[in-house]
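Retro notes - structure team

What went well: the batch runner handled both jobs without manual restarts.
What didn't: labels got mixed up in the shared folder, which is why I'm recording both outputs here explicitly, each with its sequence directly above its tokens.

Job 1
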Amino acid sequence: MNKPITLTTEQQLLLVRMPCRLRGTYITWLLGFDPYFLMSRETYYRHAKELAKNYGIEIRKKSPYYLPPQTD
């Protein structure tokens, strides 16, 4: 079972200040999913550019919370 993710106070404030259109992408990435496969290519690159430019978040890299799939 995966461990729950706890957002730091800094991450919580960042999330609140972030535009609504980027919050889902950021949270999806933070949870370890690749948002590239969950939205159109154009939207992904637009969000990636805005998150990198305005917030210093590079979603094209793996999330710090990424957990590789477990094999039993």
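Job 2
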Amino acid sequence: MENIFNSDNLEDIKTLIENKLSDVPRELILCGAVGALLLSSYLNKTGHTQAGSVIGKLSIPIIGIGLAKYQDVLKSAAESISESEFVADTQ
């Protein structure tokens, strides 16, 4: 079986994922991650420990994706604020 994640197509996979996630709001991603954590906790309490473990492990990358999108929004907001201060200082 061939490894589909090699250095040749890793950049293509990254751009594909970024394009798919660009339309999804960050709040929805973070709510999905919290929902996955709650579902994992519920499954562990009801005795489905393997399913709870798998879902709990999936929530961590989802949280990372949501925080990365939030960080991009904060960077763009900070850049727009600094640009508006620069324009105000020059006038």
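One thing worth noting from job 2: Residues 56 and 89 are 50 Å apart (CA to CA).
We'll revisit the folder naming next retro.
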